[in-house]
Amino acid sequence: QVQVMESGGGLVQSGESLRLSCAASGTIFDIPVVGWYRQAPGKQRELVARLINGGPTTYGDSVQGRFTISRDNAKNTAYLQMNTVKPEDTAVYSCMVRAVIGPKNDFLDFWGKGTLVTVSS
Q1: What is the largest CA-CA distance in the chain?
Q2: Which SS3 state, helix, strand or coil, does residue 73 take?
Q3: pLDDT band at residue 60, thresholds of 50, 70 and 90?
Q4: If 0-12 CB within 10 Å is exposed, 13-18 middle and 19+ buried, where does residue 5 land?
């Protein structure tokens, strides 16, 4: 079983910065993909950023140039650096970890419960 926990959310003012963390624990052979998603009240969940090991990094159009996704493989932890935040960035931010959980490259997607980011104007 793999557990995913986000942290770092809170209340920030428009224009400020915030860093979210996503820690994965459990029986993990590899993590080929990590992603950050968000869901604002009354809206559908949307992709914020996705990082593929050895592959492309993808950002949502609304955060391109302001947010940066990164990871520390040794710690099984991913980060989302959020700069120049805007009120429209207010949402619950969730982390998705695609983890290889067996020696035959069996993998599953695991989600955290999310962390709330509120940006005041």
Answers
A1: 50
A2: helix
A3: very high
A4: middle
